[in-house]
Specification:
This protein is an all-alpha fold and about 200 residues long. It contains nine helices and no strands. Helix 1 crosses helix 2 and helix 5 runs parallel beside helix 8.
Length: about 200
Amino acid sequence: MEPEKQIPKKVITQDEILQAALKLFADKGYFNTSLTDITDAVGIKTPSGIYHHFKNKQAIASSLYGNILDSLSISIDDIRRRNRKSSEQLREIVDLLFKLTDDAPEVMQFLLTVKVSDFLPDEKPLLSTPAFLKIKKIFQIGINEGELRSTDALLAYTYFFGVINHTLKMVLMGDLKQEADHYQAQAWLIAWNTVVKK
């Protein structure tokens, strides 16, 4: 009699877990996603493969949040190095956000529609993260150099990204039927007019 062949266990990577969790968190919400859902999404039978990388669902969410914000911060650094004027930097950041909305909607849903403080209470609020502090600094420099109207930098941020973020949320929620790219030029113009020095 031949010995039974052992079927090798599927080995999953941390990135596979994060990608599956991101999609589930964006589609179902954090609280409606279980570890079993994530286990099923990565194609394994038990959560032991997940526990090899993360101690719980909250650790997955924390890692995901950190990765997204780190990537965004690096992109903003690159944009700031390539462009001197605040208007050019803001234009490229808007380009990036609209591109991400079309190409990686789960990332943008996680950033714009998921209330992270509900399940990651120890994480910094979004506006206190390095990526967003850099954006606020772009506004401050633009105000100091006279390119943007004289106002509080956080207020300028609020006016400008109020238009951009609300447009992107409406695309993500399906209220606006076209891809984000379709609305980009108009959203930029309206947002820019809220802050530009006339």
